[in-house]
Design a protein that fits this description.
216 residues; five-stranded parallel beta sheet; 7 strands
């Protein structure tokens, strides 16, 4: 039982007021429930009122195939991170900067997280010195819809942060979309266009996400 063997560690983590517990090698919903129970047990034992969330790392073929069951198993789970190094090793695949070998895993995990309403965190870029490759990989993660990206080097942090912060022109576009939508609602219009584009609910949601990422 992964939780009973780590119960002392979990109690120390919870007592310290940690926000998140990251758990590797998650392959099933049952394991998520065990982690949630361990967190709650630790909270009760130390009398903590803090809310501690779990982050699961999926890094095996079985975990990928069970991605939605894992993502929807417990409200304690806040997000899932793809562990591509162990995943590709278990698949007998070669890890590349382009990432074709993890395309399915990324898509499966991302779709499961979106369906369950938890954060989808992309895998770290493993080639530490390839900063240009990192920037391309981070931009691709943003394009796919990931909520964040893990890093393995302090030199990667600001580049990943920069990739996930929308460019000024996108922020300006999102603000204009929201203004047009508010004006249409105030005037009782069922539809409105901006720059020749129909502003409907999916466009509004896209604008809302941009402003959320920009924190404006």
């Amino acid at each position: 039982d992964v939780c009973s063997s780590a119960l002392a560690d979990m109690q120390a983590v919870v007592a310290a007021g940690t926000d998140f517990v990251m758990v590797p090698k998650i392959e099933s919903a049952e394991q998520v429930l065990q982690v949630a129970e361990a967190i709650e047990s630790a909270r009760q034992k130390c009398g903590s009122t803090a809310t501690v969330k779990a982050l699961a790392i999926i890094e095996t073929p079985l975990g990928i195939e069970n991605a939605y069951a894992i993502a929807s198993a417990s409200k304690t789970l806040h997000g899932i991170l793809l562990g591509a190094e162990d995943f590709t090793a278990s698949m007998g695949a070669q890890r590349t900067a382009e990432g074709a070998e993890i395309a399915y895993a990324r898509s499966r995990l991302l779709t499961a997280c979106k369906a369950a309403g938890v954060l989808a965190i992309d895998t770290p870029f493993p080639f530490v010195s390839d900063l240009e490759g990192l920037e391309k990989d981070a931009a691709f993660a943003v394009q796919l819809g990931f909520d964040g990206k893990a890093v393995i080097s302090p030199h990667h942090v600001h580049r990943v942060n920069r990739a996930f912060v929308p460019a000024p022109e996108k922020i300006n576009w999102a603000r204009r979309v929201m203004a047009a939508a508010r004006l249409a609602e105030a005037e009782g219009k069922g539809a409105v266009s901006l720059d020749g584009m129909m502003i409907d609910l999916p466009i509004i949601k896209r604008a809302e996400r941009i402003l959320l990422l920009a924190d404006v």
